[in-house]
Specification:
It comes from Vannella robusta. With about 700 residues, the protein is α+β, with helices and mostly antiparallel strands. About 45% of the residues lie in helices and about 20% in strands. It starts with 12 loop residues before the first helix and ends with a helix.
Length: about 700
């Protein structure tokens, strides 16, 4: 059955909170209206002298606008709820996602069932399920709910795709499969065994000479993001070792005890195999379907595997097991599906001579109850979906083509009692009636309070900004853009643009040009902002004022001296002292300039002094674009730090952004993690290297490769 127009609209849900899109529409519209030209114009142009008239007018405008938005939101909500069937929309693990996509495309064409799926962190996906944002979630393994979790009691699970996980390694001197025991595998991943020539590994592989085992350090690779292979891998190690359960745990992402910064961050399954191929002495784990797909479609390679030694006699491996497709099929078909939706593995026999232990299933999670609107049609579509997956030969063929195992046959008969628990949420008419009345009352009170607060805040802000406008010529010059924040130091450093003489251009960028010029008989450097089109003017002007405000507060011998600024549009100039010898980068690039050891040392010392001054400010200032091109040299060979267009004052509450030049960026900046002044220390290290070698550290390296290397 398809997702047609079958549901009934219940108007009471609009104000009782059961209808989610209403609040989204409403607050979105309020945001647009609050940013509208009308309110911006009122806020900017009405002076405090007309407070009484303005206050009443503004209150009427805001209250009327909010009422209009609310009425419009109800209309939108009515449109979205009339005769709409909730779609089958889900998110979660990427484990098995090629099969999901094939299934959903086939279902849409043959059964007219519309299913959408998005790869996402499993914990976030389960939260979306609880918030009714999604109707189902895929997980790479059975979820272990924390005690007392509300979602645990209201969620049903269904095992879908099965796969096995194997371990691959890369040692040039060992082109054959290598035997390891479960104990050795755990010791490799907890750091107890750190080198390939460890005695325990050699004893398990008596057919290989000792010289075949390199003394290099073992590099265990792991996934940086949630991954179903990690769930199966850790679940098996936990079943074998109590230590692993206690110290590492089970899940799609776990804190590996031997994790190092030097480990290559693996994002997905193909990434894991590429990393093993490109990283000598590495070992990693990956699902069998991924290995087969990689060999078939990406890069054909005979990966060497870690064989699991199940029988050990006199420290030597007497029996080892290697995974292949037949063994995967036999291992996963030994699972027994329970009525509660759990796929139970047979008891582990760690001495079995033909068993593979690293096996598991992906799980479909869905809630027991759904809201009334379109619920019956929704459950009907969901039934057709499950019935198709567990009984249709096409579903089996598509799973097998991707080298996954799908349990059909009696599985659907067993799981139907689990599916029958899904029902539509019951409504209590009287409770909804009371909720409808209370919701109206609460909404009106909130509107009234909101209007009063906004009026008071706007009146106070208008008065304060008007006083600043009257005494501040800068804001008058930029009235088309709105007033700008200007520090007292910058106000005192204003320069008449007619006093600035521009001569030769000495530099250029995306939003500005740098000229050699004169000001009151002094040679200076003048940075002129290029305003460009109307769309970007506001951003460029804000960046100009941010840089000028910051530079006006800086005073240090190794920081370029700020002399003043012209703040009247369109002549937005920053006047700086002139560094006659140019940048350190230019000097390093010139063959006619001789730089002895003392000069290079002094360059580094001067740059360090300037950066220490910035980092010692209260609060500290992060440069974020430190490079040799931003280190200027004056007539006396003194280095001065410049270009603060990307600099920022440290704010612990703000989100860090990716700024600066990639070659000089610290790893935490490239990964968009939180960073501190230490990011500048990394850039300083690159500068020191470039000063002493007079060459680029990453010469002719492609950008994507450079980011992965860093």
């Amino acid at each position: 059955m398809g997702g047609g127009n079958k549901a009934n609209w219940d108007g009471r849900k609009i104000l009782t909170g059961q209808s989610g899109p209403l609040l989204h529409h409403y607050f979105f519209l309020i945001f647009l209206m609050r940013r509208s030209t009308l309110l911006a114009w009122l806020k900017y142009y009405f002076p405090c002298g007309r407070c009484e008239c303005f206050g009443w007018s503004l209150a009427i405008v805001i209250f009327g606008t909010m009422g209009f938005c609310f009425a419009l939101a109800i209309c939108l909500e009515t449109y979205y709820n009339i005769e709409q069937v909730p779609p089958l929309r889900g998110s979660g693990s990427d484990f098995g996602i090629p099969v999901y996509n094939d299934w959903f495309n086939t279902l849409y064409v043959s059964e007219n069932i519309d299913v959408s799926y998005q790869e996402r962190n499993v914990n976030e996906a389960l939260q979306s399920l609880q918030n009714s944002t999604n109707s189902f979630t895929f997980a790479g393994g059975e979820v272990y709910w924390p005690p007392g979790t509300e979602l645990m009691n209201n969620t049903l699970q269904f095992p879908i795709l099965g796969a096995s996980v194997l371990m691959v390694f890369n040692i040039d001197s060992i082109p054959v499969n290598l035997n390891v025991s479960m104990d050795v595998l755990i010791e490799i991943y907890n750091g107890t065994i750190s080198r390939w020539n460890d005695e325990k590994i050699q004893q398990l592989n008596p057919l290989l000479s000792n010289s075949s085992f390199p003394s290099d350090e073992i590099i265990p690779l792991h996934y940086l993001r949630d991954n179903g292979a990690t769930h199966i891998f850790t679940e098996t190690l936990c079943a074998y070792s109590e230590w692993w359960c206690k110290h590492v745990g089970v899940g799609e992402k776990v804190p590996f005890p031997h994790a190092k910064d030097s480990w290559f961050p693996v994002l997905d399954d193909y990434d894991m195999l590429e990393s093993v191929l490109q990283t000598p002495n590495s070992v990693g784990y990956v699902s069998f379907p991924t290995l087969e797909s990689f060999n078939a479609h990406v890069f054909t390679s005979n990966f060497t595997q870690l064989a699991i030694c199940t029988v050990i006699e006199d420290h030597k491996c007497a029996n080892s097991v290697i995974l292949d497709e037949a063994l995967q099929y036999a291992s996963l078909n030994a699972f027994v599906v329970q009525e509660n939706g759990a796929a139970m593995a047979p008891p582990f026999n760690w001495t079995c001579e033909d068993c593979w232990f690293f096996n598991g299933f992906t799980y479909w999670y869905t809630e027991e109850q759904y809201s009334e609107s379109g619920c019956n049609s929704f459950i009907s579509d969901l039934f057709e979906l499950f019935n198709w997956i567990y009984t249709n030969p096409t579903a089996m063929d598509e799973a097998q083509a991707a080298h996954f195992v799908l349990l059909q046959g009696e599985t659907w008969n067993i799981l139907q009692s689990n599916f029958n628990k899904i029902s539509c949420a019951k409504s209590v008419s009287s409770a909804l009636d009371h909720a409808f009345f209370i919701a109206w009352l609460v909404v009106m009170i909130i509107f009234l309070i909101f209007t009063i607060v906004i009026c008071i805040r706007l009146l106070w802000g208008v008065n304060k900004k008007y006083q600043r406008i009257r005494s501040n010529p800068v804001t008058f010059s930029l009235q088309s853009e709105g007033p700008m924040e200007v520090t007292p130091l910058l106000m005192k450093a204003q320069i008449d643009c007619n006093d600035i003489i521009l001569s030769d251009q000495i530099g250029t960028g995306s939003f500005g040009e740098v000229y050699k010029g004169g000001w009151k008989g002094t040679d200076v450097a003048v940075k002129r902002m290029l305003l460009g089109g109307e769309a970007n003017q506001r951003t460029i002007i804000e960046d100009f004022f941010q840089e000028a405000n910051l530079m006006s507060t800086l005073r240090h011998p190794n920081v370029i001296q700020f002399l003043g600024a012209s703040l009247i549009k369109p002549h937005l100039y920053i006047v700086l002292e002139l560094a006659e010898r140019g940048s350190v980068y230019d000097l390093l690039s010139r063959n006619d300039v001789t730089l002895d050891y003392n000069k290079k040392i002094n360059f580094c010392i001067d740059a360090a002094k300037g950066m220490l001054y910035l980092h010692s400010s209260a609060p500290p200032i992060i440069h974020r674009d430190l490079k040799t091109a931003n280190l200027l040299v004056d007539q006396n060979w003194r280095v001065k730090v410049t270009d603060f267009g990307l600099s920022r004052v440290v704010d612990t509450q703000s989100t860090m952004t990716h700024c600066g030049t990639v070659e000089f960026c610290a790893p935490e900046v490239l990964k968009r993690s939180r960073y501190t002044v230490k990011a500048d220390v990394y850039s300083f290290g690159i500068c020191v290297w470039q000063i002493f070698t007079r060459s680029a550290l990453f010469h002719n390296t492609p950008l994507y490769q450079l980011m992965r290397m860093v």
